[in-house]
Prior knowledge:
The protein has helices spanning 21-28, 44-63, 77-83, 85-88, 111-121, 167-187, 242-253, 265-269, 295-298, 321-331, 359-374, 388-398, 408-413, 431-441, and strands spanning 32-36, 39-42, 67-68, 74-76, 94-97, 103-106, 130-139, 154-164, 192-196, 206-213, 219-224, 257-259, 276-291, 301-303, 309-311, 313-319, 333-334, 337-338, 349-353, 379-382, 402-406, 415-420, 426-430. It is of the alpha+beta class. Bound molecules: '5'-O-(N-(L-prolyl)-sulfamoyl)adenosine.
Amino acid sequence: MRLSRYFLPILKENPREAEIVSHRLMLRAGMIRQQAAGSFSWLPLGKRVLDKVCHIIREEQNRAGALEIIMPTIQSADLWRESGRYEDYGKEMLRIKDRHERDMLYGPTNEEMVTEIFRSYVKSYKDLPLNLYHIQWKFRDEVRPRFGVMRSREFLMKDAYSFDLDFEGARAAYNRMFVAYLRTFTRMGLQAIPMRADTGPIGGDLSHEFIILADTGESQVYCDRHYLTLDVPGADTDFGNDAEIAGIVKTWTTPYAATDEMHDDAAWNKVPDAERLSARGIEVGHIFHFGEKYSKPMGAKVTGPDGKGHFVSGGSYGIGPSRLVAAIIEASHDESGIIWPEAIAPFHVALINMKPGDAACDALCEKIQAAYEKAGRDVLYDDTDQRAGAKFATADLIGLPWQVIVGPRGAAEGTVEVKNRRTGERDVKRIDDLMTMVEKAA
Ligand code: P5A
């Protein structure tokens, strides 16, 4: 992609409304545009990152056996009257009337709607377990939307819903999502700690939040440092093996970890002083087991092996992809800008032409761009006539993992400069060596 044809509205000044670094950097890097309180458009650079985050989430949901669907954003109030939540949900729910004066709402979550789908089709335990998920925009009329996409009113959520015959099955479904979450966040370069959490308006008795430690986090959390050294399950994890999955969950729930609401002083006092970590955290995922909370009032029943009807046992599992983009920046930036982990970087490399219009520089840049793209690596090619300083500042700000700098002297000598954004290391490389390296990486 040529920068001259791209839409990257960089801000030179720090936007005054941004209180935390991720909000500031997302605005400055032209990733998002605020449209109303807590509502944002995603501009091309931001959209690319959001898509990469969703891609990893999808791969791990699918690996764990969940099936992707897509449900509408606007829901009928009648469904929510069935579960009793229409009255309970309060002011966070955006209530709307259609032209026939029917009560509608913009979905803050989808437990009711997915239960309606389930009860319409699934009648036998033989069709279980079932886990359906979607990645869809939600609206919650938060009292205090803040920190940009970290706590917005309209935000993207991956929400999965599991259905099982009994508690044992539901617990296995919960465990699969738990392990899928560990893998998902690690793949994004994040260290997420599962912590016992409050269930709030979703309900139920078992719940974990997945927390990224960060000073700007909104939650106060308490955990054992041991979490920072635990191994995350690999891609070969067998999601069909309930005992293996339960073993991983046991390892990841044994040391102490709780959010403020669930904090237990007696248990905390047993953690040795040196191991105690009391910190701020960002909630990037939240999973719930709620049993019959929705299946019973909504009549979601299957025939069991005993020939009798059973209300299914359910759980729901959320991740906030839009919040995650901000959380990743909170965890990975420096004074010059964002530092994207490779897996979610919007482009792999910033290719900087120091003298566009110079035949040798132009030809070399085009050759390098073609080689990277052939190897499946996305390039943002800065072919603009900005000053060198501005080009470097932009490249650092948008935080692509690599910068390849092509100038007239190097082009004449057959060399380019390669900079690693994370370490700041700069290397002068022979063009042939760069080409071989790119081909090998393919
Ligand atoms: C679980 C899936 C639920 O809604 N129902 C379906 C359950 N859980 S939750 O904890 O309320 O939200 C799940 C995740 O969504 C993200 N999130 C937000 N992101 C940005 N702005 C918000 N205002 C916001 N609210 C929730 C979080 O990542 C949360 O873990």
